[in-house]
Write a structure and sequence with these properties.
301 residues, alpha/beta, Rossmann fold, 7-stranded parallel sheet, two-stranded parallel ribbon, 11 helices, 54% helix
């Protein structure tokens, strides 16, 4: 999708983070926008910032896990802007915890937002895109969708599925004039992890209490956030990839290296083992700062 000016875009999850940065950056490119999110308060702030940029912008509250909600927003989009040129499926959530702490309902919530929202979106928008034989679908995955980091498993599972469905759509829709891209963010400074629903390991909860664990995990997340890429910087790279009609769009070469490494199975297996060890070491060091040796607590026994 080389030209963005005067084109129309529909974005989910635009109240904050990558979605918000996308909306503002695309408005600066001259695109008209229909932005959605379940967080209407912050979505209105995004809309207010865009209104000064001289493009048409509409905001609608939408729970993307509900097909009816997304269908309603799509109908509203068509009534306001008429045709769809760029669809960005960005909404996502995280529920974190060990396999023992996570309930089936936790898995369902994550898959409903991270995966089923995209299925809903395709079901709603694709027929008209096929009629026009044009348009560009962009699905936001994660580096967690190209290599199986240790946790959170529902999030990783959903993002692997997003990569898979994007690859399949890319191959199927190209001959119909529809481009498909999958964005693979590395670690970008967004609210998704700071607002995550964390299921604390029962052994640690019993030993130290919720207040102490919240203090520890907040410290870990703050340190990680300080090293993360700002979403505005990441989105510049994503838009460049969209303009080039790339299937995979990365914000760092590390993710590209990981993808290439999967072509060498034995080396990739060794990488996964070492990654798990390093991840455990980082967690151990963080807890030791608070005088806790997590080696004393086997979280899977």
């Amino acid at each position: 999708m080389i030209e963005l000016k005067h084109k129309n875009c529909f974005i989910t999850g635009a109240a904050s983070g990558i979605g918000r940065s996308f909306a503002i950056a695309l408005a600066k490119e001259g695109m008209n926008l229909f932005i959605t999110d379940i967080d209407m308060e912050n979505l209105k702030k995004t809309k207010s910032e865009i209104e000064s940029l001289g493009v048409r912008v509409y905001a609608n509250k939408c729970d993307v896990s509900s097909f009816e909600d997304l269908e309603c927003s799509a109908n509203e989009f068509y009534s306001k802007l008429g045709s769809l040129d760029l669809l960005i499926n960005n909404a996502g959530i995280v529920i974190s915890g060990t396999l023992l702490e996570l309930e089936l309902e936790d898995w369902k919530k994550v898959l409903d937002v991270n995966l089923w929202s995209i299925i809903h979106s395709i079901k709603v928008f694709l027929p008209r895109m096929l009629e026009r034989k044009s348009g560009h679908i962009v699905n936001v995955a994660s580096a967690a969708g190209i290599f199986g980091s240790t946790e959170p498993l529902p999030y990783i599972t959903s993002k692997f599925a997003v990569v898979g469905i994007s690859e399949a759509l890319f191959g199927r829709l190209r001959s119909y004039g529809i481009n498909v891209s999958v964005i693979v963010p590395s670690y970008v400074r967004t609210d998704i992890f700071s607002n995550l629903n964390l299921k604390y390991p029962k052994k640690l909860l019993d030993a130290f209490g919720k207040e102490k664990l919240e203090e520890i995990y907040k410290s870990i997340l703050n340190e990680m956030s300080g090293k993360a890429m700002h979403p505005d910087r990441a989105v510049k790279k994503y838009i460049s990839g969209i303009k080039k009609n790339q299937l995979y769009i990365f914000d760092t070469r590390v993710s590209l290296t990981l993808l290439a490494l999967k072509g060498k199975p034995q080396e990739f297996e060794e990488f996964l083992i070492n990654y798990h060890k390093n991840s455990n070491n980082v967690s151990r060091e963080q807890f030791l700062k608070f005088g806790i040796n997590v080696d004393d607590y086997d979280l899977y026994q």
